[in-house]
Predict the 3D structure of the following.
Amino acid sequence: MISIQGVQAMVAFELRRAITLQRLATTVVLILFPPLMLSLMVLGPRAFGEEPPRELFPEFPTVFLLGISCILSLLLWATPNVYSEMESKGWSFIACRPKGRTSLLVGKYIAAVVYSYLVCLLSSSLCTLAAYWLDGYAKSTSFWISLNGIFGLACIVYGAIFSLIGVLFQKRGMVFAAGYALLVELILGFVPAVINRFTMRYHLQYLAVKWFDVLPEEVIQGMELVYGPIRSNAFHISVILGAAMGVLFVANLVIQRREYVTAEDV
Amino acid sequence: MEPMIELEGVTKLYRTVLGVNDISLQLQSGAFGLLGPNGSGKTTLINLILGQIRPTLGTVRLFGKSPWKNDRLTRRIGLCPTVEIAYPNVSAKEWVTFLVQMHGFALPAAKQAACRALELVKLDHAMDRPIGTYSLGMRQRAKLAQAIAHDPDLLILDEPFNGLDPVGRFEMTEFLRNWVRDGKSLILASHILYEVEAVHPAFLLISGGRLLASGTPQEVRQILADSPSEVVVHCNQASRLASLLCEQNLVQKLNILADQQIRIVTPSAAKLFEQLPGICQQHGIVIDQLTSENESLQSLFATLMRIHRGET
C-alpha cells in the first residue's frame, strides 16, 4: 500500500528542495548540452565551407545527446534516493512516518522522473528549434513528439532502475548505476544475441526506429537480423512500463525490509 | 494494564558490534529518562522501539504490537532524533508541514498543525526563514516541532538539549514537564543526569549496551549515595579528621593532599555525610569546603558496571 498524501508531500518537497543554485546550474548544463552540440554539428562544417552530415541527421545525434543528458539527470536525481537522505540526516525523520520508506522511494522516483523529463523536454525543444533554424529540418513536429515519447519512457524505466540501484547500494549507488548504464545498456545492448532483448535500450531503440521512420527498409531488416525482431509499439511500451513497475516493486520490498543504519545509530 | 513498551531479552548486533545486550524491560505509560554515556546503546534502543531495526535476539513490543514495519504505530510516536537537520534552503514551516503530511494529513491541515507546533516551541517568529539561517538552538526547536506536530501519544527525544542555551534549556524543560503533566508519554535520552532529572522522569540507566538499573530519581540518588565515591574535604584539622574517619570505618582509601585537605574514597557517601557533622562537632573540626568530585553520571555508570560484574 502507498500513502498518496505521503508521496504527494515527498514529490512537492523534493521539487522544492531542487531550487538551489547548484542544481539549477547542473540543470542548465544538461539542457543546453544537446542543442549546443547539435548546433556545432551544423555550424562546424559550415565554418569550413562544408555541408553538415545528412544521413540520419538530426535524429541519430539528437537521440544520442539527449540520451546522455537524460541518463545523467536520472543518475543525479534518482540514484541517491536513500543515500541523499542519509547524508542530509533526513532519513531518521522520514523513515519513522507511516509508509515513510515507500513514500520516500516513490516520491523521489516521481520527482526524479518529472525533473529529468523536464530537462529532456526543454532540451529536445531546443534541439528541434536548432535543427529547424540552422538546417531547415522539415519534420520538426513529428520529430519533437517522437523524441519526447521516447525520452518519457526512458525516464520512467531508467528512473526506476536507478532507484532500485540507489536502494540496494547506498554509498556507491552512482558508481553502480553508471556501471549499469555503460555495461548493460550500452555494451550489452549492442551484443548481437538474445541477451540484448533484456536491455531497455532494445525496446527504446525499436520504438525510435518506428517513430522516426527515417531508416530504409533494408537497414531495419539488417537490424532485426542482428538485434532481434521488431515488435508492435504496444509490446515495446508494455515491456518498458512493466519493467519499470516490476523494478519499483522490488525496490519497495528492499527498502521496506532493509535496516539502514548510520554511524550515529551504532 | 498493557505495557507501553516491552522488551524481552533483546540483543542487537551490527555485524560484530554490539548495540544492545540482552535487555528486558516493561514500561507503562509515563516519562522515562534514558541515561547513558555516549555510545552506550541509547539510539539503538530507540531505533528498536521505533521498529527501524530488528533485534538480533528477543522481542520488542510497542503498545502491545511489534513495531517492525507497523505503520499504525508510527502514527502514535513523535521522534526527535539527535541528528541535525540539513535542509538549508527550506523553511521550518515547509519542513514541518512536509513531515506532518507524511502522516496522511491534507496540506491545509498539515500547515495548521505545523504552525501550531512551531508556535508551541516558540519558533513561530522565524518559521518562514530558511533553516540554514537558524542557530543550533532554533534547529533543535524545529526538530521538536516536527515531533509533536501530529499530536503523538509517545514522544521520543534523543539528546534534545544539545546546542540549547540556558534559556532554551529552561524552556525545553518546561515544555517537557507540561507534556508529561498533560498525561502523555515521554522517553528522553541523554548523557547528562541533571538535564533529565529536571523533567522528573523515572530513569533507565544504560551502559555498554546493557540496562544497568532503573528507577525514580530518588532511587538513582540512593544508588549514588550507596556507591563508593570520592570526597575532598578542606578543614582546619585534616589529619585528625582522617584518623577519626578511619576509626569509624568510613574510609576505603585516603590521601592527605595538604595540611588542610584530604581526599577520601568512601564505600558509602550517604553514611559518610550522615556521620560527618557529628564527628566534626564532637572534635571541634571546622570544614571549609566539601566537594564530591565524582558524583556524576560517569561515576554512577562505573559503579553500576562494577555492581553488574559482581565486583561491589
